[in-house]
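=== RUN LOG ===
request id: a7f3
mode: sequence -> structure
chains: 1
length: 96
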Amino acid sequence: MKTERLTILVSANEKKALAAQAKVLNITASEVVRRAVAQYRPEEDEEQRLLNALADELEVSARSAQHALSAARKELEATRAYFAAKRKEPPQARIA
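=== RESULT ===
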């Protein structure tokens, strides 16, 4: 395999992270970069972005549904209480 040299600039923290990952895998930092490049799929990044956006929308919708259900429960309880009170009223009071 013919190789070529590539010089890249990274921050001190990125360099430390790269060295740490290489040490864990028992490979060179260059090999970590080569593997990362080989596995990089920008279309998957776009898919992940879309999935995250959909998940965010779903979370908002779920919260909205929970609030609507809570309001409906309160209204139902008020309606039940109203009719329970009506059943307990004396018959002459209902005519008015």
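=== NOTES ===
The chain has four helices and no strands.
Residues 12-88 form one domain.
=== END ===
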